[in-house]
């Protein structure tokens, strides 16, 4: 029985910061960001959006009366949770009017959370083929103003419906995984900004990729020639480029050219949105299937997931006949093109107005938030959500 991704969508803020503007404001050569990091723009997330509202806004594009009745597993992968106890999945279940007879919970392991959810959803649907699962990867990447990680900020949510006989892609064979206790990136409970050792994290990322790739080849007998494209967790595009370069010599010249070409199609959304932690791999995958002209049903796509701290996983999916939804692709392209560019000063003001980790009621101005779901504020220690 085939199980895989039946539907998927993406949501992010309607504001962005141009990396050339940021580079000029920080007295850096713009090419350090455009080429050295591979980032063109990054989403600027207002305080009226959090991971719950962004997930809900993504889900409205793929939840209908049919799958709303079938979904009884809701897994929310995030490292930007809104409560240390109550899961974002429970909020989301209520906001979308999903089945009450459902398992709903949150998964955390840095940027790996959505992949953990995806693998759990796969096994659940294999055992219950008449049911479906909703998997979310949503995060807001914050490192701080004038920090080395500032250029790798961003945010958004990717939503996926997992089912039997999926329309987009089916799981193809086993996964390989590797984990170790390393301090390359973390965020203490008392901080809204992450702590990161960037160079070390890059090294660990590539090391975990090669370890899982080598094991995958060993247990499956497959080689790089068996893959039409490779997708990666992309906190910024250059990280995926480094991973691909570490094994590209295993391919012949024609295959190398093809893999590089498909990587360019897969990076389009990421380089214009920025880092969304748990959703970054799946935004890369979505960008690939929406932008590549060469993909066909049956093509095998590699996926490498990485979460700092650290966990890596390599797995494969095969594209199905209806892997591209032209209507959703056009809608996403239109949303990205219609975003408002903000100045560095405006971005800094938005960043500093983020809801603090502190006691007290907060009333937010939602008049400029055009999203269907939004955060109104905090009252009596409870987040108050609104819907247009």
From TrEMBL:
Pfam families in UniProt: HMG_CoA_synt_C, HMG_CoA_synt_N
Membrane-spanning residues: none
InterPro entries per the UniProt record, alphabetical: HMG_CoA_synt_C_dom (IPR013746), HMG_CoA_synth_N (IPR013528), HMG_CoA_synthase_prok (IPR011554), Thiolase-like (IPR016039)
Domain Hydroxymethylglutaryl-coenzyme A synthase C-terminal, chain residue ranges per copy: 177-248, 260-352
UniProt-listed Enzyme Commission number(s): 2.3.3.10
Keyword Transferase: yes
Protein's recorded name: Hydroxymethylglutaryl-CoA synthase
Enzyme class: transferase
Span of domain Hydroxymethylglutaryl-coenzyme A synthase N-terminal: 2-165
């Amino acid at each position: 029985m085939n199980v895989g991704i039946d539907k998927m969508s993406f949501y992010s803020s309607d504001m962005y910061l141009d990396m050339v503007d940021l580079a000029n404001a920080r007295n850096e050569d713009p090419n350090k960001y455009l080429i050295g990091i591979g980032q063109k723009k990054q989403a600027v997330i207002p305080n009226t959006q959090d991971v719950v509202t962004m997930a809900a806004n993504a889900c409205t594009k793929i939840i209908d009366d049919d799958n709303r009745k079938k979904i009884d597993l809701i897994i929310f992968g995030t490292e930007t949770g809104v409560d240390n106890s109550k899961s974002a999945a429970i909020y989301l279940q209520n906001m979308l009017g999903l089945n009450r007879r459902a398992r709903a919970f949150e998964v955390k392991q840095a940027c790996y959370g959505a992949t953990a959810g995806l693998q759990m959803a796969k096994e659940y649907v294999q055992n219950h083929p008449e049911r479906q699962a909703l998997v979310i990867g949503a995060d807001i990447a914050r490192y701080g103003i004038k920090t080395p990680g500032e250029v790798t900020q961003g945010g958004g949510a990717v939503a996926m419906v997992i089912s039997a006989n999926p329309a987009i892609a089916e799981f193809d064979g086993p996964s390989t995984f590797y984990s170790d206790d390393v301090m390359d990136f973390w965020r203490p409970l008392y901080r809204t900004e992450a702590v990161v050792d960037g160079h070390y994290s890059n090294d660990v990322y590539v090391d975990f990729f090669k370890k899982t790739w080598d094991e995958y080849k060993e247990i499956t007998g497959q080689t790089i020639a068996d893959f039409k494209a490779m997708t990666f967790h992309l906190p910024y595009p250059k990280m995926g480029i480094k991973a691909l370069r570490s094994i590209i010599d295993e391919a012949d010249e024609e295959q190398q050219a093809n893999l590089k070409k498909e990587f360019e199609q897969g990076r389009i959304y990421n380089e214009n949105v920025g880092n969304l932690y748990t959703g970054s791999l799946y935004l890369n995958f979505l960008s690939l299937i929406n932008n590549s002209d060469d993909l066909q049903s049956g093509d095998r796509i590699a996926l490498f997931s990485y979460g700092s701290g650290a966990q890596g996983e390599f797995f494969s999916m095969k594209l199905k006949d209806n892997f591209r939804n032209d209507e959703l692709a056009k809608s996403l392209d239109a949303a990205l093109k219609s975003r408002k560019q903000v100045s560095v000063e405006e971005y800094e003001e938005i960043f500093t107005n983020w809801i603090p980790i502190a006691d007290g009621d907060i009333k937010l101005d939602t008049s400029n938030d055009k999203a269907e779901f939004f955060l109104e504020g905090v009252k009596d220690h409870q987040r108050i959500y609104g819907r247009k």
